[in-house]
Design a protein that fits this description.
two-stranded antiparallel sheet, 9 helices, mainly alpha, single chain, disordered N terminus, 3 domains, 2% strand
Amino acid sequence: MAPSTEKATVTETVEETGLLAFDDVNGDGLIQYTGPASPVPNELTVDPDIMVLATPEIADLPAWVIGLVAAGGLAAALSTAAGLLLGVSSAVSHDLLKRTFKPDITERGELVAARLAAGGAVLLAGYLGINPPGFVAQVVAFAFGLAASSFFPVIILGIFSKRTTREGAIAGMISGITLTAGYIIWFKLMRPELNLPEHWWFGISPEGIGTVGMLVNFVVAITISRLTPAPPREVQWLVDRIRVPRGAGEAHEISA
């Protein structure tokens, strides 16, 4: 059965984006998809992003429905990006500069630092958007892996352990994110040809290495915290207060 004009139009539209390409390598008049692991040349290239772009046309949805879906996705992306940019700029200008390296910085200098940090984040995000290290789901997995290996253990220890020290938290975060980021950069950017199960540590892919980084963070943070002086009494009191709901009174024993 000959393909319909509608399906052919969808194929041509997707071809123009560069997400679908075919080449009859052996000249037999057939386009063969053999998969990336097959020794036979693969004659069909399909980018995973084709599912996002081609599905509305394949389903023959009206143009206004496609526009609403695109607008919703763009709005979600912009709102998320705006929140993350604010977080990056405030973390660099206030937490890093004001509270650590340059306590005497003026409000104007803090504002300039925040704008520069936001601009740098935009440039880095733009570069990674043009040259993505992987498919969308992979990039999300990298982001969650980096967060799990850096922030998650310190947040948990900060709430449930009064013995966790500043030195332990910093050492844990540095070790966890260094391991995770180094593993991802090595297999995805520096040596992508080695990104195969036989070269992975214990069979763990770069998308899942964040779990190992998280465990390393926990071990390093707990170990260094035990080797350094305990936090001040007011910090330990703050940890206790975090666990108590606001407005709760003293506990009383109820007799039967």
